[in-house]
Amino acid sequence: MDQQKWQTLHTYMTEQGLDAMLLTTPKHVYYLTGFLSDPHERFLGLMIPREGEAVLIVPALDLEAAQQASSVKAIVTHTDTQNPYEVLQAHLPAGIKRLGLEKGDLTVSRFEALAAVIQATDYVDVDAPIRQMRMVKTAEEVSRIKKALQITEDALTAVVRQVKVGMTELDVVAELEYQMKKLGSEGLAFPTMVLAGEKSAMPHGAPGNRAIQAGELLLFDLGVAYDGYYSDITRTFAVGEVGAKEQEIYQTVLAANLAGIEATKAGVTLASIDRAARDVIAAKGYGDYFIHRLGHGLGMDCHEYPSVHGENQDLLQTGMVFTIEPGIYVPGIAGVRIEDDVWVTETGCEVLSRFPKELQIIGV
Which end of the chain has fewer CB atoms at under 10 Å, N or C? Predict the structure, then answer.
């Protein structure tokens, strides 16, 4: 059990005058207890009173797994025929007036069922302290991200060797996802993206039956889950020799990626990192073709706080993990994105992703 996390929450409850906090997001239950599950439609909750012992409420079919994994030893179950909110009610501290909830997680129907048994006078959103904790990653959390990256990059290394002219985007996707699972992935971070030629100019394009051709760019965006944490990288390759325009776009994006990394250090604004990369692209005349933010936080979610964009004046803190992924997308011609995952350190940042970034020729 990470006592510092629990102390942070108890301090917050005292400051806000909360009698208790109920966490229902499975990732946050895992974050605090070590028990990771997908309860589907069943109720999962972690009740943390300001004083006294925390209680973990799980579906009965998850009891054994919770007992093995959870640092919280007070575990209560409910069956499929029980009302989980009545079970919860029996284990609530007496006289709750102010209850902390994850308002972004609860549906209206769940909140109404919860409010009917708790009958507090105030319900307070507790996103702020949890987001603040999650934003600063420990070395142990980073080691899990690194393992997710290793799986991702090993799969990419294996599959780019197999790419041949005539394969479809979906052929390559299928091979990537097979390799990632074989190497230990616990799931995908998001639907794997492989986009060829003019389709690479769509930042969120969908792979299909388009055949890969010689003389074009091929963009890969992929990531996996491992032990509750995610990876997310993008690399762009040349299928055989590509034209001068494609090479210029690639080198511009690479320079922007490196500029963003160079600008990353504790104490600067997130906006300044975006600007450092964006200025490189604008100076080459491609500013109108960089149409998204520079990056996003990475951890227990593939997209989490912080958002690295030109209006975010929040300061970087040591321990943040996020992506740096500049791109240039010229409609009907080609797109390039190069994405790394970085960890802010005392001396700058550590680039967690290791896959080479020079333009590689494949498929020949």
Answer: C
Q: Torsion angle, CA of 95/100/102/107, rounded to 10 degrees?
A: 30
Identify which of 300, 130, 147 has the alpha carbon closest to the alpha carbon of residue 229.
300
For helices 270-283 and 244-263, angle between their N-to-C axes, nearest 10 degrees? 160
Which residues fall within 8 angstroms of residue 7, CB to CB, at 6 or more apart? none
- Which long-range CB contacts under 8 A does 32-41 form with residues at least 24 apart? 32/2, 32/5, 32/6, 32/71, 32/72, 33/1, 33/69, 33/70, 33/71, 33/72, 34/1, 34/69, 34/70, 34/71, 35/65, 35/66, 35/69, 35/70, 35/72, 36/69, 36/228, 37/62, 37/65, 37/66
Task: Please give the Cα distance from 263 to 259 (Å, whole number).
Answer: 6
Distance CA 71, CA 34 (A): 6
pTM higher than the cut 0.85: yes
DSSP SS3 for 113: helix
Give CA–CA dist 31/195, Å, rounded: 35
Report residue 82 as tokens: 């029980």
Nearest to 251 by CA among 361, 364, 363, 357: 357
* Amino acid at position 140, single letter: E
| pLDDT tier at 230, thresholds 50, 70, 90 | very high
> Is residue 117 classed exposed, middle or buried when 0-12, 13-18 and 19+ CB atoms within 10 A define those classes?
middle
Beta bridge partners of 92: none
Q: Give the pLDDT confidence of 91-137 residue by residue, as tens digits.
A: 888 889 999 999 998 999 999 999 998 889 999 999 989 999 999 99
Q: Please name which of 6, 357, 341, 284 lies closest in space to residue 149, comparing C-alpha atoms.
A: 341
Residue 1 has pLDDT above 60, yes or no: no
